Amino acid sequence: MAGEPINVNEFEELARKVLPKIYYDFFSGGAEDQYTLKENIEAFRRIIIRPRILVDVSKIDMSTIILGHRTSAPIIVAPTSSHQLAHPEGEVATARGAAACNVIMGVAFTSTCTMEEVASSCKAVRFIQTFAFKREITANMVQRAERNGFRAIILTVDAPRLGRKEADIKNKMIAPPFKNFEGLISTEVVSDKGSNVEAYAAETLVPSFCWKDIAWLKSITKLPILIKGVLTGEDATKAIEAGVAGIIVSNHGARQLDYTPATISVLEEVVHAVQGKVPVLLDGGIRRGTDIFKALALGAKAVLIGRPVIYGLAAKGETGVKQVIEMLKNELEQTMALAGCCTVDDITRSHVNTETERFLCRM
Ligand SMILES: Cc1cc2nc3c(=O)[nH]c(=O)nc-3n(C[C@H](O)[C@H](O)[C@H](O)COP(=O)(O)O)c2cc1C
Ligand SMILES: CC(C)CC(=O)C(=O)O
């Protein structure tokens, strides 16, 4: 690649050049055969856009409202861990990039900067992400989130234990210190068996966490709870019954259970089950503005972006994060104009055609 990156894939190339292999593998990798990792991207390519012509597209407005917060575009920074392995300024730089673009910042509890450092560094609307942690860890997280102006809790439910990322095992990947755990986990988290991320998980995760525990989480916070990791209509229905404020269709960027479907291929199933009761968001494989357009057409309120933001951070720190988000916003704006949609509400189901629909048409 010569010159400045002009799309997200070129940012990935740049990140691959600047990062030590062990960290590039950690950020880019997926579980086991990485079937789902490829599918998350390939499934978008199989969806075709049906543009409308001769619409006045002289003004395009991508703004939207997510859980009451107006943002410049239907884009959220996905909560991802370990940003200081990409850049010394870590999540603080990422959050500043998100703030500059006026999009919501998802902060992982397994961040390398503390929640407090991120909160005091920028004005971005921030959501905190947590796992099915031991109750004392969750209670601590909730208090700190409320005190530090986080606006929602993202509860990630697809990780009762960690997925097997074989590159990390081979590379003996050592997790950086997750500073939010300071004072909360007693033992030094080390391992001589390769990756120490397993040891962290064993110290913190509760594999018996289930639906009733959402009622407990609701009882200790006034913040809205988004459930992240839903892949079926059945679980979407249960999540609504449990009283969540929103659903994130996600397979954890293909890092947990391999051979789960591409998220975009199950979005409609979830949207139908939810019946408009809460917003449905989606992440996994978003690399182009056209991908965002397709997700919105199939019923998502917004999308979360994981790896592209990390690649921007690795390549150019806060500036790189900003450039990646702006690139995706520009591409979405271009797609909306060329497809004849002036606002996000103008993007409808009839603006896309799935492979199944094309197959059925031929029968
Ligand atoms: C390096 C990395 C770390 C991640 N860490 C977390 C995490 O701590 N909590 C979480 O809920 N999801 C985590 N995820 C998953 C993301 O939130 C998101 O679901 C995924 O990255 C979306 O796919 P994409 O990377 O293709 O955009 C992580 C993903 C990556 C790539
Ligand atoms: C295991 C966590 C530390 C981060 C995570 O969720 C991931 O790497 O996918």
TrEMBL record:
Keyword field contains Oxidoreductase: yes
Pfam families for the chain: FMN_dh
Active-site residue list: H252
One GO CC annotation: peroxisome
GO molecular function: (S)-2-hydroxy-acid oxidase activity; FMN binding
Main location: other
Any GO BP annotation: hydrogen peroxide biosynthetic process
UniProtKB keywords: Flavoprotein, FMN, Oxidoreductase, Peroxisome
Enzyme class at the top of the EC tree: oxidoreductase
Reaction(s) catalysed (UniProt annotation): a (2S)-2-hydroxycarboxylate + O2 = a 2-oxocarboxylate + H2O2; 2-hydroxyoctanoate + O2 = 2-oxooctanoate + H2O2; 2-hydroxyhexanoate + O2 = 2-oxohexanoate + H2O2
Binding locations of glyoxylate: H252, R255
Cofactor requirement: FMN
List of residues binding FMN: Q129, T156, K228, S250, D283, G284, G285, I286, R287, G306, R307
Localisation: Peroxisome
Family as reported in the entry's similarity comment: Belongs to the FMN-dependent alpha-hydroxy acid dehydrogenase family.
Protein name: (S)-2-hydroxy-acid oxidase
Lineage: Eukaryota, Viridiplantae, Streptophyta, Embryophyta, Tracheophyta
